Amino acid sequence: MLTLPQRCAYHVYVNTDNLAELRTETLGAGVVKRATTLADGRDLIYYDDPETTLGAERAVDARTLDPRPETATMRLDVLTGDWITVAANRQNRVMMPSASADPLAPQTPDNPSEVPSLYDVAVFENRSPAFGPALAEALGTAPAAANPPRGLDDLEALGLGRTRTSVGRCEVVCFSPEHSGSFGTQSVTRARTVIEAWADRTAALSKLPGIEQIFPFENRGEAIGVTLPHPHGQIYAYPYVTPRTTRLLDSIDRTAPDLFQHILEFEQASERVVFRGEHWTAFVPFAARWPLEVHLMPHRHVPDFAETTDAERDELAPLYLRLLSGVDALYDSPTPYIAAWHQAPVNVGRESVRLHLQLTSPRRAADKLKFLAGSEAAMWAWAAEVTPEQGAARIREAIERAATEESLSPSTDGEVSA
């Protein structure tokens, strides 16, 4: 269901004697970016919808906050080469708060939340990060890392007892000021604003010292492990190339530098296509692991959101919402999922790794979930219960059903065809 944000739930007043200093910039699609900082020095960025009803001013964050936590430590698993972050500060995160205690809602006299003012979209540094806050001494916003990674070669070396500081950045992306919802419950205009924010943050984070990969994602539903019902996603900026992408780069080396183009053409010729637009195609992959798995891929090679065109972003907003509406129409209750936007690493694979979404859900029936047990969790050897062709047919039907229920034509919002 596509719904408009309901601002009437909030009555937030800005004290004109207590205004934040804002760095303002106009981005694509008429989105306005207003950057400031929170009371403990963390970055806070407002992204205003085009033709927003909000004013230009924002309140200062007047809270008294504890110092930022020390940056976590990474430990090397010498058996796999994976770096494991140990972030004890994340143990006490807020768990499913009420609307009156929502840390992502705009601040009120009774709720000293993370965002001082009413907003359309807001992005801020996570208060309990797995990576960061230390990046480099030059940033001057946090103590320098005592034992930072020393480049990709350093991180690839194997050895017992190896540790490094988990430099990086974890950001929260609030899609709406409302207490509950998801990306799929936003309007097309709001979705376009979020996409602009993803592109802007990808560009900015890629320039930070020590960052090797940027990952925007949304976790939706308690079955996935969500601890906040507020409509939001996250962006992780890693100090290494993730294990998933490392395996992908190896597959590209063993096949062809334009592997993604071959995959796209292979899938477009199959019965697994969910829909196809001018710039994007959604499909269930040939070797889908999960009961519900859909990929969404641009038609041209583009490494990340920062390098997409306005036309690609304009079409993506309604197409992505259409996909999510179909995912929710599969059952009588909202579908839990992970929406993972894979992007090329910052310094390697830019000409071969293509931006794409992998949306997965463990829900295999109305009242059943797929759990990763022995073979899959321990040996990474997967067995799928739903054929990809059946999965694609079900999602196509659900998208049509959702469009009918919303009195929308299946071919509107982007000239989509099955």
TrEMBL record:
EC number(s) per entry: 2.7.7.12
UniProt domain Galactose-1-phosphate uridyl transferase C-terminal: residue ranges: 266-397
Pathway(s) it belongs to: Carbohydrate metabolism; galactose metabolism
Catalysed reaction equations from the record: alpha-D-galactose 1-phosphate + UDP-alpha-D-glucose = alpha-D-glucose 1-phosphate + UDP-alpha-D-galactose
Entries under Pfam families matching the protein: GalP_UDP_tr_C, GalP_UDP_transf
InterPro entries: GalP_UDPtransf1, GalP_UDPtransf1_His-AS, GalP_Utransf_C, GalP_Utransf_N, HIT-like_sf
Galactose-1-phosphate uridyl transferase N-terminal domain boundaries: 78-241
GO-annotated molecular function: nucleotidyltransferase activity
Required cofactor(s): Zn(2+)
Keywords: Carbohydrate metabolism, Galactose metabolism, Metal-binding, Nucleotidyltransferase, Transferase, Zinc
NCBIfam families: galT_1 (TIGR00209)
Family: Belongs to the galactose-1-phosphate uridylyltransferase type 1 family.
Protein name: Galactose-1-phosphate uridylyltransferase
Organism of this sequence: Microbacterium luteolum
Lineage: Bacteria, Bacillati, Actinomycetota, Actinomycetes, Micrococcales
